């Protein structure tokens, strides 16, 4: 009925062997909590991430303002600290208050694996259906990017044709979460690359040298330029018009998992130098893997996650068999001491998927005081997940190719923004809007300092070459 | 009447100060002959380039075969060793003989500077008009690429809008040299990027790591992928159809100045690994700057070149004032010893632009035997250039925006290829078609060896990241 200390498959942890102490790692490719000397992986410490990344914690007062400005009660993800951090959220609220335009941007790297419940978090938070969330609260355009080119470039084995198959499947999964085609544009890089989008890609490439990318990503791929270009309204003239003096001032709000922050830190830095509006961000924590806190679900490890195609029985089996429990070893102990909801994966999942705050609180009290046993807690979790996944599967079955076409089509979008804006106040400059470099963490700034000299030499060399090359036929 | 030893402006020579001995440098950004201990820049040694680059000299027997296969007398550039080197030209002739398709690819980096007569050489050689050359001889599609994105990325100062203005002007200059819109597609990267072209760009990027690019270009820009993608027929489904099993087998023939060979060496290497037909190349030598052998015309130095917008008087003044002479110091000496046509810029220009072989030979004999004085030689050169430049200017004035549209439009092209093919023989594999790495020079292979280890580490890291990243939402 209860589990021993969590053992986390290596693939879910850092590169360091389990038994060896290792620090918490969170970046676009690695996510894992600190591994103690005992080899046990601790839960991700999200407060240290706020410090390390230099983001802002979402405070009670932010929630109060959010409700005041939007007239909507904050989403349970915000109420429960699942969406816990931001960059310039208040600037977006200022704009909404004044009825000034902005848009939402999220995305996904299409992969052969079916999505798991962890993948749905940013989309759930972004979407409007059932829980009626961000896109509906703000009633603004939503742009969803599918990075098929990155999935090809970064894969040793995949061909473009493979990745395009995944794109076709994944887009239906995303649509099944529930978005409004009238105000949503979904694109894949291979389909959309070109025009103003490509121009912005090269603008970013020119401003972010490979060395900056190296400092941020730890390797010299400059793919960030393509993810970055999607954060700029001028990449989408069919939505925001072709007058750059207007579109360049329209910012995006990017709901993303905290591990994606480095990409957009670079984008914010460049936006400043390109005189484009800086994207704002709200960061979600991760849904723990079944194996417990400190691990992240992996699309390639079936036993690490509940997948959106799992049948009800499979969901029951996975939760009962794998969901790490915060309960005590024996029923007696559990009755006496109660369980630990912070460590309990089933409870964590309920905080993500159970809408009713009072019900959740009843469960928390019952479990921590020993009135509720792990089996009962798991049963509640199983029931919630079965409903959630079943709903998804029904919507997924209803997604037609025509609907996909509609989302992909480069059409004008229909959105209202704030129906009752207040008189436009003097434009407030978002905090940190002129602090591009501050977007980098201390370590990255150190790395950059090192790279700077090399970089200047490189530029000098390029300039020289350019002069020599000026106007010469290439062939 | 005669000149002292040539003094070449620094901008036309290598980075080394004039007075210091320096080796010959020829790459896409630097072209200059060896500078002797005396500080005098020697003529480019094209034979050492053939060795260094690993290309093949165009031999008398190649010319004979060319005439036999095409039924056309070799262009004066070939007859006179101006087009002196190739890669797989015989493979292209094999295909032509069998009536198998291929296409011509040339291009230009649009710049603010007006084109000079040096820029026109690859186009003159490629075009069909007046001298009725390659495109007409073969009657195959011609693709002309304008690398506006590269000109933006590699410039410290230019904005995309600037580069696009240059593109609009430069394309009219190119059209004025004379091409057939029915079988020519001209595009700029900013206009054309996307679709199958972008897919091939990423295919090349994936196969050519930054380290390979570094080894070839000496810096880590991977722009070669975009120039490379244009060498593959599958980038142009509107011309070659969307069946890759066919288009991937259609090679290009790239007439280019020898300094551009490194780009396409990389492309040939990658083509092999992508199972695309390798592009073939024919290399032209440079038109010497007015200042003499060993220097290259510069679009940014007016006195280094005859520009296509120079008025007749300006042409006369430039030749009389700046054209380095191979003549003797006094008329008496010239009458006695005769002049040196190898060093004489006016004579060199005549070899490029005077079509009549017998007339050219009469001039050579008269000048080298002292019967002709430098003034008379310059007068003949001036007359030829005035006619050539005037003809260009008249055609340029006639280029309409509608005509430009026609060249830019993605339409089916009309071409016949070989009207009398011989029965298709067994497909001959182009020499070196499986020797991708051999396309690199010794130095580059050395550099590559060094880079290889780093590279393998990088790939291992990427693979690991990929596994972690698989299927994770990017935002």
From TrEMBL, chains A, B:
GO terms for molecular function: ATP binding; tryptophan-tRNA ligase activity. GO terms for cellular component: cytoplasm. Keywords: Aminoacyl-tRNA synthetase, ATP-binding, Cytoplasm, Ligase, Nucleotide-binding, Protein biosynthesis. Its EC number is 6.1.1.2. It is an enzyme of class 6 (ligase). SUPFAM superfamilies: Nucleotidylyl transferase (SSF52374). It comes from the Eukaryota. InterPro entries: aa-tRNA-synth_I_CS, aa-tRNA-synth_Ic, Rossmann-like_a/b/a_fold, Trp-tRNA-ligase. It is found in: Cytoplasm. GO terms for biological process: tryptophanyl-tRNA aminoacylation. Residues 425-445 are annotated as: Disordered. PANTHER family: TRYPTOPHAN--TRNA LIGASE, CYTOPLASMIC, TRYPTOPHANYL-TRNA SYNTHETASE. Belongs to the class-I aminoacyl-tRNA synthetase family. This is Tryptophan--tRNA ligase, cytoplasmic. It comes from Cudoniella acicularis.
């Amino acid at each position: 009925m209860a589990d021993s200390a969590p053992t986390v498959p290596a693939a879910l942890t850092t590169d360091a062997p389990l038994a060896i102490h290792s620090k918490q790692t969170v970046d676009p490719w690695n996510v894992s909590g600190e591994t103690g000397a005992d080899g046990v992986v601790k839960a991700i410490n999200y407060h240290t991430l706020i410090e390390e990344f230099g983001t802002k914690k979402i405070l009670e007062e932010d929630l109060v303002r959010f409700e005041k400005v939007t007239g909507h009660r904050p989403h349970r993800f915000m109420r429960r600290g699942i969406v816990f951090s931001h960059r310039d959220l208040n600037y977006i609220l200022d704009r909404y208050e004044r009825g000034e335009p902005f848009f939402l941007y999220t995305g996904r790297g299409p992969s052969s694996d079916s999505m798991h419940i962890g993948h749905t978090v940013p989309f759930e938070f972004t979407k409007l259906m059932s829980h009626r969330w961000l896109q509906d609260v703000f009633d603004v355009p939503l742009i969803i990017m599918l990075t098929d080119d990155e999935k090809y470039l970064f894969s040793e084995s995949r061909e473009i044709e493979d990745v395009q198959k995944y794109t076709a499947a994944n887009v239906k999964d995303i649509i099944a979460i529930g978005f409004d085609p009238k105000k949503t544009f979904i694109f894949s890089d291979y389909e959309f690359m070109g025009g103003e989008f490509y121009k912005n890609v090269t603008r970013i490439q020119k401003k972010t040298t490979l060395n900056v990318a190296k400092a941020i990503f730890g390797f010299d791929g400059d793919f960030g330029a393509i993810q970055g270009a999607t954060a700029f309204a001028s990449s989408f003239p069919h939505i925001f018009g072709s007058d750059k003096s207007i579109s360049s001032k329209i910012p995006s709000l990017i709901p993303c998992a905290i591990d994606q922050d480095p990409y957009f830190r670079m984008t914010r830095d460049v936006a400043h130098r390109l005189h484009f509006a800086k994207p704002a961000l709200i960061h979600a924590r991760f849904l723990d893997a079944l194996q417990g806190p400190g691990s992240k679900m992996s699309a390639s490890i079936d036993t690490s996650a509940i997948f959106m195609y799992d049948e009800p029985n499979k969901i029951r089996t996975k939760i009962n068999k794998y969901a790490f429990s915060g309960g005590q070893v024996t029923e007696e102990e559990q009755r006496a001491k109660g369980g630990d909801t912070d460590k309990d994966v089933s409870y964590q999942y309920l905080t993500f998927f159970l809408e009713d705050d009072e019900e959740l609180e009843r469960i928390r009290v019952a479990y921590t005081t020993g009135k509720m046993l792990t089996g009962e807690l798991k049963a509640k979790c199983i029931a919630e997940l079965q409903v959630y996944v079943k709903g998804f599967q029904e919507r997924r079955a209803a997604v037609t190719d025509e609907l996909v076409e509609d989302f992909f089509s480069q059409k004008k979008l229909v959105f209202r923004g704030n129906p009752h804006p207040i008189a436009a106040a003097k434009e407030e400059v978002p905090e940190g809007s002129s602090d591009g470099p501050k977007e980098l963490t201390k370590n990255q700034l150190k790395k950059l300092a090192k790279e700077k000299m090399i970089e200047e030499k490189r530029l000098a060399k390029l300039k020289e070459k350019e002069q020599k090359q000026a106007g010469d036929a290439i062939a």
